[in-house]
Design goal:
The complex is a heterodimer of chains A (634) and B (159). By secondary structure, chain A is an alpha/beta fold. In chain A, 40% of the residues lie in helices and 13% in strands. Chain A folds into five domains: 41-150, Glutaredoxin (3-Layer(aba) Sandwich); 173-378, Rossmann fold (3-Layer(aba) Sandwich), CATH 3.40.50.11540; 388-474, Ubiquitin-like (UB roll); 477-565, de novo design (two linked rop proteins), CATH 1.20.1440; 578-633, Alpha-Beta Plaits, CATH 3.30.70. In chain B, helix 1 packs across helix 3 (35-45) and helix 2 (19-30) packs antiparallel against helix 3 (35-45). The chains are: A alpha/beta (634), B alpha+beta (159).
């Protein structure tokens, strides 16, 4: 908000301006009237990924260049929007110039003067900066025509490109908070709950529990106050869709929460967000202030008499706090240890009061359901899983990024159709879904439709939406061990099967990957896995063995190669591989000799080098640095 | 130190519920959680010191020992793992001669790993003093370490 509000009276005055649906619509029209759709708007991704690639410098350069080329009359500086993540992280920093929708990828500061003088001043396209299809070699100028986006249905993420993540006006101008206004004006709380039940919105955080029924239980539970919580403790490694939503379009999450609070009868809410997401914390905090200023939060929201406010809590870097009861403990100022699940959070959650917790993406779906209706929503997806789901497609994939697709799309369509397949012509091996609690799915099942139930049948799960692609160079035993190590560290230690069981399974895997595995280890892993699943208190332990169980089911040959042949077929496990130099390819460039930290790589410049097996610590530095494919792993 | 702790607590209206964020702010202020600051927090919030320690030792974000001038963190998320984060971690361990979670004796570097920073397109990611550096290789990490004042051999140097 540009308007500065300094006193309580001013706040009251301003808030009174918008008390009805009509007044909100008028406010929206006023914002829209100030905007000329024909005028140039530049949208620049300023999400975490693009910022790391230098987006901030590009933004500064764009502003300077527009000024120095005297184009301020054509493009006002506040029409350069620093937006949230549109999803195509692989090709950042991304600039889209409207109304032509010209999309430039992989921008650097050096490209900026040309973009301004050619495209912004003269509508001229710079060919080298537009998307080039790797197969057809066709160039695609318009953002929405790029195959990566074209095959998605971006109801939640799509607005990220149009909204300056620090502007509530941008959100309102696109229809933001109209769902809230409608709910407050026309819908009884019970009706809102019923709408979400009818839409069959299932929790996007991993559990897949029907959100509407959770709201229903919390609404009908005894006790006051009731709490509404947004779980933004996105801990699954390789998953960042919640961050993109909260960072890029925080008001969509707030609007969902406020509607939920109204439906449930709650007056206090929390957003529990990872401290490792500093930009999400900043943008969400700012959004809360803005929403309070206009009167979407606080007392007597939009003149309805409904009161609700939200506080932000930053997490302390504990994965287990994504589990609801551990998250409550953390908000209460204690260590994040889960408790047994026979007490439902909807009855006794935070401070033992009825509590409704949903994750970021679930909340962001709510305004969409209200605006478009449960019937429209439930027509997207499969029988048991409705709507779209955002996946973070990462790992060994050409188009790394966030993809939003209707439930029921096949894994193959996501990985090859949208993700563009595996880089460097390597062979696909597995896709890991569901975070550390999920499993690895092999090629044979790539035509499985992706929804809550189908992935569970394969021994994996939807989880929060991480999708990590692995190729022939990834060792599945190593990957299973990776997840166990992660969970061993993140186990809170409260219950024995999880604390000790994961540790023992990890020790067995350590043995296998170091070439000391025994034939009976596989059976031991299997029964231990079952015992941990049965005996653990919370979902962390209850699903911890999944990565081991699924890799043993689908990639048993790799385990056997480690145990019987003492070989790591993918060339990853240090104790089972050796490095050597192929004299055919080595031209004596000396790079490996220079980078080797232990002087195992030896040789004179311009002569074939060698690697001393005795000294080599298998750090892979030589393999990584060699430009001639001369370092071989056997 | 007393005043600073008091000021931090007043930001949260001396509400015990905000113990975790209060400790985060204390850590931000002093770069770690000094013992006497914890006692002060215990006093002012009227929370037993045992509970303060329970929280301070449970969460990964907290350190009871002073942190180094530079903070290096390797992202060990799955995407970074499959793209070579373990190699990077052991390289940095070797150069700095410390393990994740430790600080060098001269307090110049602290080294950690983190579950995932969500910049998966850039994996493997090395975070240096809050800034993300993507597509890390051993050679690139050497350059970065050198920039931060660590003596390491980099590509450009002639031997």
């Amino acid at each position: 908000m540009k308007k500065k509000i300094k006193t309580l009276e001013q706040l009251e005055q301003f808030r009174k301006d918008i008390e009805t649906l009509e007044q909100l619509e008028q406010f929206r029209k006023d914002i829209q009237a100030k905007r000329d759709p024909e005028k140039t708007v530049i949208s620049l991704c300023a999400g975490t990924g693009c910022l790391a690639l230098g987006a901030e410098k590009v933004a500064v350069a764009l502003k300077e260049e527009i000024q120095s080329q005297g184009l301020v009359s054509k493009v006002s500086l506040d029409s350069i929007k620093e937006t949230g993540c549109p999803g195509f992280c692989e090709r950042g920093p991304i600039v889209v110039i409207y109304p032509e929708e010209t999309c430039y990828l992989g921008i650097t500061v050096e490209d900026v003067p040309e973009i301004v003088s050619k495209t912004i001043a003269n509508n001229e396209i710079i060919e080298r900066l537009v998307y080039k299809d790797p197969e057809t070699k066709n160039r695609v100028v318009r953002d929405s025509e790029i195959p990566f986006y074209k095959k998605q249905q971006r109801y939640l993420l799509g607005n990220n490109s149009f909204i300056d993540s620090k502007s509530i006006e941008d959100y309102i101008s696109l229809g933001g908070y109209s769902a809230l206004a409608r709910v407050l004006a026309d819908m009884k709380p019970e009706k809102v709950v019923q709408e979400v039940i009818d839409a069959n919105l299932r929790g996007r955080g991993g559990g897949g529990f029907p959100a509407g029924w959770k709201w229903h239980s919390t609404r009908n539970a005894e006790g006051n106050p009731k709490y509404v919580i947004c779980n933004a403790d996105e801990g699954d490694p390789g998953a960042f869709m919640d961050r993109a939503l909260l960072e890029g379009n925080p008001h969509s999450v707030l609007e969902g929460m406020i509607i939920g609070a109204y439906a449930i009868g709650s007056s206090e809410g929390y957003i529990y967000v990872r401290n490792e997401y500093p930009l999400a914390v900043t943008n969400a905090t700012l959004a809360l202030d803005q929403a309070r200023e206009i009167g979407f939060l606080g007392g007597n929201i939009l003149g309805s008499g409904f009161n609700f406010d939200i506080k932000i809590m930053r997490g302390g870097g504990a994965f287990v706090c994504g589990e609801s009861s551990a998250l409550f403990a953390s908000i209460e100022g204690r260590s994040g240890e889960p408790r047994a699940k026979y007490i439902h959070a909807t009855d006794k959650g935070l401070w033992d009061k009825p509590t409704n917790l949903n994750n970021v993406e679930t909340w962001a779906n709510v305004p969409l359901i209200i605006n478009k209706g449960a019937r429209w929503y439930s027509e997207i997806g499969t029988e048991g899983s409705k709507g779209t789901k955002i996946f973070s497609l990462v790992g060994k994939i050409n188009n790394t990024g966030l993809v939003e697709v209707p439930m029921g799309i096949t894994l193959r369509e996501i990985i090859y159709g949208i993700g563009g397949g595996i880089p460097k012509g390597k062979k696909f091996k597995a896709v890991q879904t569901g975070g550390p609690s999920g499993g690895c799915i092999p090629e044979a099942y790539l035509d499985t439709p992706v929804d809550f139930d189908e992935l569970t049948k394969l021994g994996s799960m939807m989880g929060s939406g991480g999708m990590i692609v692995m190729d022939e160079d990834n060792c599945m035993v190593d990957v299973a061990n990776y997840f166990l190590k992660f969970l061993e560290e993140e186990s809170c230690g409260k219950c024995t099967p999880c604390r000790e069981g994961i540790l023992q399974m990890r020790k067995i895997l350590d043995r296998i990957t170091s070439g000391e595995g025994k034939e009976e280890d596989l059976d031991t892993l299997e029964w231990m896995g079952d015992a941990i699943i049965d005996g653990s208190l919370c979902a962390l332990g209850g699903s911890a063995p999944n990565p081991v169980i699924t890799t043993m089911r689908y990639f048993r040959d790799e385990y056997e190669a480690h145990i019987r042949d003492k070989k790591c077929p993918a060339g990853i496990c240090r104790d089972l591989i050796r490095f050597s130099i192929d004299p055919e390819n080595c031209n004596g460039c000396h790079l490996c000799v220079r980078i080797c930290p232990v002087e195992a790589a030896k040789g004179v410049k311009k002569e074939v080098h060698t690697i001393d097996d005795e000294i080599c610590i298998k750090c892979r530095a030589c393999y990584e640095v060699c430009k001639f494919d001369a370092v071989k792993i056997t | 130190m007393e005043d600073k702790v008091k000021e931090i607590i007043s930001r949260y209206d001396s509400d015990k519920a905000f113990l975790v964020p209060i400790l985060q702010d204390v850590q931000k202020e002093f770069n770690y959680l000094p013992n006497n600051a914890l006692y002060r927090v215990s006093n002012l919030l009227d929370v037993p010191i045992s509970q303060i320690y329970e929280v301070a030792t449970f969460y990964k974000a907290f350190s009871l020992t002073p942190r180094g001038e530079h903070q290096l963190t390797v992202c060990t998320g799955t995407a970074c793992h499959v793209r070579g984060a373990p190699v990077l971690t052991s390289h940095i361990e070797r150069i700095l001669e410390i393990k994740p979670g430790e600080t060098s004796k001269d307090l110049s570097f602290s080294f950690d790993t983190v579950g995932c920073v969500g910049a998966c397109a850039l994996g493997p990611v090395l975070e240096a003093d809050g800034e993300y550096h993507g597509k890390m290789t051993i050679a690139k990490s050497n350059k970065l370490l050198k920039k931060l004042g660590k003596k390491v051999m980099t590509d450009e140097e002639e031997d």
